[in-house]
Specification:
Elements lengths: L1 H6 L2 H15 L3 H9 L5 H19 L3 H17 L1 H7 L18 H45 L4 H23 L1
Helix pairs in contact: 2-3, 2-4, 2-8, 4-8, 5-7, 5-8, 6-7, 7-8
């Protein structure tokens, strides 16, 4: 709940908007239009229900201390996955909130993000943390490839969806390794 409050559920909104746009139509322009709509649709609502439900279930298998560590690793590392899109891809729209980040990141900035994520995952979770990090980054990379295929690049909502998918992957992985 703290993460939702601190971020204003920004990444969850991105996940929901992506699910609505990508689930509703195969057409790029229409999907981008749906993603821009502030109303939540069936696909978005279901994506949030599944995402929160899976997190809740995974965290419920852990002791409070390990659950807290899993959340710290997942929250920090999953935000690092956004740098993947910003370094290796491009923005899919001509304008929009994500356009602020469309200039990309330099290689040194990408490496700093990656190194910080690796250090935090290792310090907090040892080998399990690194395994979860790798799988989280892989899940985010696969989402980016899907966004490029469907939309021609990432959007602000796509960045939020990448973060959410990575965070969920990390939490589930850690729950599986630590429970």
């Amino acid at each position: 709940a703290t993460g939702l409050i601190v971020t204003g559920a920004l990444h969850e909104d991105g996940l929901a908007d992506c699910a609505d746009g990508l689930g509703a139509t195969p057409e790029r322009t229409k999907a981008l239009e749906i993603m821009r709509d502030s109303r939540i649709g069936t696909y978005g609502a279901l994506a949030l229900i599944v995402s929160v439900g899976l997190r809740w279930t995974a965290l419920a298998t852990l002791l409070p201390a390990t659950g807290f560590l899993a959340l710290l690793i997942a929250h920090s590392a999953s935000r690092g996955t956004i740098s993947i899109a910003m370094h290796f891809s491009h923005y899919a729209r001509d304008e929009g909130l994500g356009k602020m980040a469309s200039g990309g990141t330099s290689f040194p900035d990408f490496m700093i993000s990656l190194i910080v994520s690796v250090i935090l995952a290792f310090v907090l979770g040892w080998i399990s943390g690194l395994v979860a990090l790798i799988l989280g980054f892989l899940a985010a990379w696969l989402m980016l490839k899907y966004l490029e295929h469907r939309l021609g690049g990432y959007t602000g909502d796509g960045l939020g969806a990448m973060q959410q998918i990575a965070e969920l992957t990390i939490i589930i992985t850690l729950a599986g390794l630590w429970a």
